[in-house]
Amino acid sequence: xxxxxxxxxxxxxxxxxxxxxxxxxxxxxxxxxxxxxxxxxxxxxxxxxxxxxxxxxxxxxxxxxxxxxxxxxxxxxxxxxxxxxxxxxxxxxxxxxxxxxxxxxxxxxxxxxxxxxxxxxxxxxxxxxxxxxxxxxxxxxxxxxxxxxxxxxxxxxxxxxxxxxxxxxxxxxxxxxxxxxxxxxxxxxxxxxxxxxxxxxxxxxxxxxxxxxxxxxxxxxxxxxxxxxxxxxxxxxxxxxxxxxxxxxxxxxxxxxxxxxxxxxxxxxxxxxxxxxxxxxxxxxxxxxxxxxxxxxxxxxxxxxxxxxxxxxxxxxxxxxxxxxxxxxxxxxxxxxxxxxxxxxxxxxxxxxxxxxxxxxxxxxxxxxxxx
Length: 372
Hints:
With 372 residues, this protein is of the alpha/beta class. It has two domains: 2-123, no CATH class; 128-371, Metallo-dependent phosphatases (Purple Acid Phosphatase, chain A, domain 2, 4-Layer Sandwich), CATH 3.60.21. 38% of the residues lie in helices and 18% in strands. The chain has eleven helices and twelve strands. It has helices at residues 2-18, 25-39, 41-49, 59-89, 101-123, 161-173, 190-193, 222-231, 271-275, 294-299, 318-324, and strands at residues 128-136, 146-150, 178-182, 209-212, 235-236, 240-246, 249-255, 284-287, 304-307, 332-336, 339-343, 363-371. Strand 8 (284-287), helix 10 (294-299) and strand 9 form a beta-alpha-beta unit. The longest helix is centred in the first third of the chain and has 31 residues, at 59-89. The chain is elongated.
């Protein structure tokens, strides 16, 4: 069904963008066939690996498919806008406006360029984003405490070992106090991705690297992946917490599993279990891959929740739709009761829709500040 749905924008582009062109029939048929092949990117991904989440093509091919698929979607929306305007013109005096051929060709060239830019923005090593977060009654020992927040790396054929190594190098250069990773490390089986994730072994911070699974880990044998990441020196917070100290001051780091876990027979997020035995009157930093449960965390007295999952909405405009599926949270900082929620745009993103326009990826350095 999903492959049929993805073919609809392509059929619209062929009917309203290609067929009206004054070109030879063989040329139009050839272009229509190319567009149809590009529109079935997720079908080819599933055939290549058994999963739409793990296209096992060379990186340039994945980038080309992503750009072509995105261009089809954008062009369908633009042509629909043209057609809507033409229909509205029928109700106006002297109406009956026709979409000029030059406009169709210009629209196609514009979206092709836009899609190329969007792919380039998606696959780059993210720039640094600095964020200050005020925490009520933060212990003095943690004033200025720095957190590097990574999320949604989606290490895959699109984000391979070379990209992961560049991210690790940049992350370590920042010399933060702690590194927190809020899930979606990978897209692919352990056999396919083991070599690509190897650079993550070298992530270092004074108080270590702490992590939780995201929903994509549950698509690819979450237990094997979490054991592997633990063996690489990461501390996994699956409905658990830890306490870091500075002199006599303390900060709680807590993490929960993903909301999607129960659907495949794994324990779902349990904040009560994660905080069981945590010291009272100590600020809590919570790792939760999806931001939707932020009000519940705020009610439990969490000071800062770090989430990802949304990829920031990827494209301006689309972010509003993504927000609707995530309890209104999509990108950046939110005040939820007495808690700050930070939704990271993502370090990488899923190769099935590798486009970014106006919602850049980020390496997020969060600095804790004391407020009374």
